[in-house]
């Protein structure tokens, strides 16, 4: 937290009295902890903990930003998103980001070429785990003009990346075309970083 933010009033914490695990699988663990509110009232609080840190990659290039049309089962429809996923056991976030980028878009980018943009929390009211944000300089085509081929995981459904200039992205935001919270947060960090100027003028 920066100096300006830390100068604001700080609300008292909700204190965890007892950890209560209610569900676990290979992706993460759901807790329904016993907590104590600032007023002294006892209650419960749901908390999801991913098995590893998350990563989201902002693909940028001459055409602006690349978004991946992704079918999301939870909303029953297609969502325009930046590539994202999770770190495997003991996997460095940059390595995970390069892997997820390749799997979901076909774009190759070595981990050392990724530019860290910051860390976000996808839903501070529920999800404990942090998400590392990276920018990746990529092109609309692969080597020798070949179109990159994505190799998503078995339970993923993605289509060919869609490129949008910053000007087009503004229109998407105004029309509600992009609603994924992780993508919107990563986009904000990328804009603050000056990424994805593309063919459009600065915002």
TrEMBL record:
Main EC class the enzyme belongs to: hydrolase
Domain called Nudix hydrolase: residue spans: 50-186
InterPro entries linked: NUDIX_hydrolase-like_dom_sf, NUDIX_hydrolase_CS, NUDIX_hydrolase_dom
Record has Iron-sulfur as a keyword: no
Keyword Iron: no
GO molecular function: hydrolase activity
Keyword entries, A-Z: Hydrolase
Cofactor(s) essential for the protein: Mg(2+)
Name of the molecule in the record: NUDIX hydrolase
Organism, as annotated: Streptomyces albidochromogenes
């Amino acid at each position: 937290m920066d100096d300006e933010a830390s100068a604001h009033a700080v609300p008292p914490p909700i204190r965890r009295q007892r950890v209560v695990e209610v569900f676990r699988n290979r992706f993460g663990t759901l807790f329904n902890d016993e907590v104590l509110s600032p007023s002294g009232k006892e209650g419960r609080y749901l908390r999801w903990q991913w098995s590893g840190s998350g990563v989201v990659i902002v693909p940028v290039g001459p055409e602006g930003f690349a978004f991946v049309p992704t079918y999301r089962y939870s909303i029953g429809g297609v969502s325009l998103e930046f590539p994202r996923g999770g770190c495997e056991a003991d996997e460095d976030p940059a390595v995970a980001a390069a892997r997820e980028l390749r799997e979901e878009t076909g774009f190759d980018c070595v981990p050392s070429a990724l530019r860290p943009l910051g860390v976000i929390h996808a839903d501070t009211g529920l999800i404990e785990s942090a998400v590392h944000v990276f920018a990746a300089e990529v092109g609309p085509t692969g080597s020798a003009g070949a179109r990159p081929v994505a190799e998503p995981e078995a339970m993923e459904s993605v289509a060919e990346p869609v490129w949008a200039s910053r000007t087009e992205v503004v229109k998407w935001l105004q029309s509600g075309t992009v609603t994924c919270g992780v993508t919107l947060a990563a986009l904000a960090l990328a804009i603050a970083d000056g990424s994805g100027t593309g063919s459009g003028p600065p915002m």
